[in-house]
Amino acid sequence: MSALPLPPPTGFDPAQLRWINRYAELGPAFGRRQGGLALPDARWVAVSEGAAAELGWAGDWWLHPQALAAHSAGPSWPGSTPMATVYSGHQFGSWAGQLGDGRALLLGEIDTPSGPREIQLKGSGLTPYSRMGDGRAVLRSSIREFLCSEAMAGLGIPTTRALAITASPLQVRREGPETTSVVTRTAPSFIRFGHFEHFCHHGQPAALRQLFDFVLEHHYPECRDAPHPAAALLESVSRRTAELMAQWQAVGFCHGVMNTDNMSILGLTIDYGPFGFLDGFDPGHICNHSDHQGRYAYARQPQVAYWNLHALAQALVPLVEGSDEEISEILGAALEPYRELFPHQMDALMGAKLGLQSRRDEDRALLDDLLGLMSATQVDYTLCWRQLADFSSADDGGTGPVRDLFLNRPAFDAWAARYRSRLQAEGSVDAERRARMNHVNPRYVLRNHLAELAIRRSQAGDDSEVQRLARVLERPFDEQPEHAAYAALPPDWAQTLEISCSS
């Protein structure tokens, strides 16, 4: 494994992991138990020390003699109960029927210092739910998922984690021949909206109730004693989803394929496929080349999430007692917190991005007008917010480098005068404001061209750029002057990159 340190092994032993396997014990209706198909001639690409720390593992865990085989879908997880789970879902707004883990295996749950954590291998071979696929993940998509999972964790946004990537010379065909890979993912749970939809829409009320009880017992125990537990669950999921959507929008993250089977019941960012962070600010930006109608464009993500919550509500109908009208009213009320919380969270996050410590009625117009100026000429989203921290609130202090990002300088100057007045009105101290803004406006995000460069080098056998970029993204708010090039404007060729669901 190139460029990774080689400390002495700590004696980590997969045979000593304490497996719980609660989901597998639910029964055969929930998936198919099976092993994976090992990658031949596997090599390490990268590991995440942060994800390992969440599991309570030492940083050199990957040096164990069985670790490489285990993380390449080999049979080195004694005590686990590997299974592919079944779920259904709505894809691009249409009912897609049965789906499921087509290229992933849930190994089970292990006991960790922070509670049970599921471990999943993605790219481990055919399952009963692979449909027309081969069950493999390609190196390209695995690197993107690894980097973005860990980047989101660094940004403080709820997410599944990526523990490791292994790669193999084994080839499969996508748009062309590509080499294969396995990503080891972890999360408190990988249960999706689509798991509930599956059992509801396929007429399995007993299994739906079993899944519901499982989720309440292990993830939402506070909902069990509510007058309507299913509505209480929906309300809790709605709140978590509202908070997640606000965080996505504030940092300029586009998921790309917000199908209901890609929505986490825990409010986590899950299933990194054709994602992208905004470069030039464009509310209509579509990061998924396969999204021909723009359903999942950046500005539409909050409304899509609300639509998906309605789909989850429909799946919970059999769990609520009452007449059709009463059930509709009960579940409808459980969705309302999303409509209230999302704009509240957005106001708070965007106010923090502006460096404001108080809220005034005119702040919304101040924000909207800045976004309008950014959109008019597609000003770089991440750079603009970061450079705004250097704005001076003094009458003769200047605007700092942020002004140079705007082609319409007079329009920006007019906005800057309003912003300066607003800062002065609350007695803003520039040094303190700068520190606050740099704590919420990242200097580094996973731009598509950065991921592409790391992918190209890894495909050529050099994994050092994947490892280096991952380390930069672990500290997205720090200056890291030695890595300043990662924060620069993207090159012109980055505009030609296209990311599709096949990624």
From TrEMBL:
EC numbers for this chain: 2.7.7.-, 2.7.7.108
Keyword line: ATP-binding, Magnesium, Manganese, Metal-binding, Nucleotide-binding, Nucleotidyltransferase, Transferase
Superkingdom of origin organism: Bacteria
Cited Pfam families: SelO
Binding positions for ATP per the UniProt entry: G100, G102, R103, K122, D134, G135, R185, R192, D271
Top-level EC class: transferase
Keyword ATP-binding recorded: yes
Catalytic machinery residues: D261 (proton acceptor)
Positions that bind Mg(2+): N262, D271
Cofactor: Mg(2+); Mn(2+)
Cited InterPro entries: SelO
Catalytic activity: L-seryl-[protein] + ATP = 3-O-(5'-adenylyl)-L-seryl-[protein] + diphosphate; L-seryl-[protein] + UTP = O-(5'-uridylyl)-L-seryl-[protein] + diphosphate; L-threonyl-[protein] + ATP = 3-O-(5'-adenylyl)-L-threonyl-[protein] + diphosphate; L-tyrosyl-[protein] + ATP = O-(5'-adenylyl)-L-tyrosyl-[protein] + diphosphate
GO molecular function terms noted in the UniProt entry: AMPylase activity; ATP binding; magnesium ion binding; manganese ion binding
PANTHER family: PROTEIN ADENYLYLTRANSFERASE SELO, MITOCHONDRIAL
Protein family: Belongs to the SELO family.
Function in brief: Nucleotidyltransferase involved in the post-translational modification of proteins. It can catalyze the addition of adenosine monophosphate (AMP) or uridine monophosphate (UMP) to a protein, resulting in modifications known as AMPylation and UMPylation.
Protein name per Swiss-Prot or TrEMBL: Protein nucleotidyltransferase YdiU
Lineage, uppermost ranks: Bacteria, Pseudomonadati, Pseudomonadota, Betaproteobacteria, Burkholderiales
